[in-house]
Amino acid sequence: MKRRDLLKNAALLAAVSAHPQELLSATDSQPQGVTPRTTDRLDQGPFDIDQDEGWRAIYFSSPSEKPVRNPGLGLVGYIWEENGPSIAARQGRETIAQHVENIAALPFVDILYIRCDWKHVQSEAGRLDLFPFWQLALDAAERHNLKVAFRVQLSNPEFQPDQLALPQFLIPRIPLVKIGRIPRNPDAQYLEPRYDHPEFQRAFNELNDLLAARFDGHPLIEWMDLMQYGFWGEGHTSDFPNPFPDPASARNTFAKMTARQLAAWKRTPVAVNTQPDISNVGNRAIIEMAKKAGAWLRSDSIIVEEPVQIEELASRPPWLAAILEDGGLRRYDVSQIKVDPAGVNLMENYMLHVLDIRANYWGLWTESANLRQYDQKYPRGFARLRAALGYRIRPAWVWQRKRKGTSELIVGIANRGVAAVPGILWVQVKSPESGWKMRGPLDAGHPTGGGIRLCSFMLPQGFMGKVHLSVELEIRPGVLKPVAWCCEQALNADGSITVEVEPGNAPGWRKGV
What we know:
By secondary structure, the protein is α/β, with parallel strands linked by helices. It has helices spanning 3-18, 20-29, 87-90, 96-104, 132-144, 198-215, 247-264, 283-292, 307-314, 346-356, 368-377, 379-388, and strands spanning 55-60, 74-80, 111-117, 147-153, 176-182, 185-193, 221-225, 270-273, 296-299, 322-324, 361-365, 393-403, 406-415, 424-430, 437-441, 452-458, 465-476, 479-483, 497-501.
């Protein structure tokens, strides 16, 4: 990490630590986050008829319903979850390597996801010790043209009291608080670390910095879930009390941990869980802080969530992505899925609700064989998601206008997806023959789901001939990724489309209509 970044991080952490109440009041007063600023903003209209020298539509594309892999959307296959890998791998019927390959080879999977414990990434202070499934996932993603996302859990109740999420070297250094009896083992209690303890904070800061040094800006990493307080890293400890000595300590500690991560991760998107504040640790402030920093939103279920959580996801700022899963039906076992009298299966009912909140991602969990069988028996669910999830943009119209002695191109970009563009879309017009190019950004989040956004380019004096029209997504400040058009028309090798700029005396020009 560079010295300048360290100084910035220290300043942010100091501000959060010194003024926690100002942080809370500030986030309450601006619930919609901060609109990302753009430089070199393209003219986005309206393009009126006040200067009418002639115009014509020179290109119009038809929408494609085929699946497309673009940054900021997709179906997510799980390499590892809070219980481990696939059931078959846990039972020894397949190796971890086979499980990873089976998930990666599913034709409808776009992202490979890891949700593991702290002990799976670090076994001693000062360095990362990634368990082998990390490299298996990265290698499989590269082979299959996929991406990887992850969360490192600071607490995991699944294997308590026998195992904690913490690495062994850290357990003797920090207090562990008993917060309540484990239902499956009434003689034992859940243990939570004292997150506010100096040893925990030192180790956590090191963990965050090590992970950011390894993965921030990594070309295969799609997003990183913030490492949050509590069970599964979700910002709660269920119906049990939190382990902090008082509410102020809880809120301040949670805020500092969030600020530390937001400061360190600059090139890879981060996601914040939208869990309401059932554990009294300041979740609302955390969510608003993260949104202002550009963090995406996520939830671990779609049907049984509280109304406030669905509202948070559905009403998010348009430039933020939403990541959804549902743990209750994670096995996709066709023999266990209920079907209503109308013939709609419960799993499909669940998954299609993610389109209602304009989501970008849907989690598929770990069971590759079940997922294949489900897709064969109920193909409509995945097909609908792949045709509408996230954003699906195309140059629906391109007009040429005579203006100021040259040609102006106006591009109308349509979005057939349910979600807005998760970031800032940069549009480029380039002449493949003469080599000039023009580019600039649209407003953040545009075009929104189901929407259209227009932009204008004034071409060089007297230019006629072919131009290539392409787009990139600024997914984090200064980080641009190519985006494929979702149209039926042929694309060039670089993903652009070709538009012919025609002479002013060509047939078809309109004026005074």
